[in-house]
Design brief:
7-stranded mixed beta sheet; 12 helices; globular; 7 strands; alpha/beta
Length: 295
């Protein structure tokens, strides 16, 4: 529909989404828990938005999902309606004090299938506190593997664990990379999109060589895509040339509804399920689940 008017495109999006939401067919469960790290040290590229909306979409379609908020700002916790005031049991307690995740996670009002390990402002000092700790880069991996619903057998097993990282390559992000099996890389469809990605890829290679040989960049998602501009199309082409079939076919458009949803403690899937942003995340989630684990 390259010749369609914007209004016709919007109507088509709305109709397709209503059909999808009416079906609400469960997505295929992976064979084992997929631990996915959402990282990019460049700020403002949609890491938290992607984490929240993919997690919510998967949970609404029958998947059992855990979100671990590893950003001291706690934006993922806010967007999923989770209490994260100072003193709340959080990912800080798991990293610094070794508190089991089972004692930290909270159910999200988004879906009964969605659990969240919130972040508090205490995480801002975690990197300093962990400096003298033995095997400090393995703390999150130990916490995840110690959760009895991860890599378990039976219906109660978690299907996805998403780790939302801060916009840096510090010890918190390092813990996530050591803990994860897959890296999901959101890239903003704007100028300088690939700036800094090279440094992240170098970090990933170092982690693979020394700490976590199983880590792979499996998924790249274009965010804030504006189909009306040549810039977005050019960036998308450059990203696809660089990462190949690891780039999802679905790109997430700029959307006011996607930006508004966190202020109401919701994902866009519950805030405005008829918006183009919600449809795009639904399509991205379907594509992600159908790909399975890349080897």
């Amino acid at each position: 529909m390259s010749d369609a008017t914007p209004l016709a495109t919007a109507v088509e999006y709305s109709l397709r989404l209503r059909q999808e939401m009416a079906r609400r067919e469960p997505l295929p469960r992976p064979e084992r828990t997929r631990v996915m790290v959402v990282a990019n040290q460049k700020g403002g590229v949609g890491k938290t938005t992607t984490t929240v909306n993919l997690a919510s979409t998967l949970a609404h379609h029958g998947q059992r999902v855990l979100v671990i908020d590893l950003d001291p700002q706690g934006n993922a916790s806010t967007a999923l309606g989770i209490e994260h005031r100072r003193g709340t049991p959080s990912s800080y307690d798991a990293l610094v004090d070794g508190v089991p995740l089972a004692e930290i996670v909270q159910p999200s009002p988004e879906s009964p299938n969605l659990l969240v390990a919130p972040a508090t402002i205490d995480l801002a000092g975690a990197e300093i506190e962990l400096v003298s700790v033995v095997a400090r880069e393995n703390r999150l991996r130990k916490a995840i593997h110690g959760f009895d619903r991860v890599f378990a057998d039976g219906e109660d097993r978690l299907d996805y664990v998403f780790v939302d990282c801060p916009p840096s390559l510090g010890l918190l992000t390092l813990n996530a990379l050591v803990a994860g099996d897959e890296l999901l890389l959101p890239i903003q469809a704007e100028y300088y999109a690939l700036e800094g990605v090279g440094q992240l890829m170098e970090t990933v290679e170092l982690v693979k060589a020394n700490l976590n040989p199983g880590l792979e960049i499996t998924t790249v998602l274009l965010t804030m895509y504006d189909a009306r501009t040549r810039l977005s199309a050019g960036v998308a082409e450059e990203v696809r040339q660089h990462f190949g079939d690891r780039v999802l076919r679905t790109a997430i458009p700029r959307s006011v509804r996607v930006s508004e949803a966190p202020s109401y403690g919701q994902s866009v899937m519950t805030y405005d399920p008829a918006s183009p942003g919600a449809l795009s995340y639904l399509e991205a989630a379907r594509e992600l689940s159908s790909r399975g684990v890349r080897v």
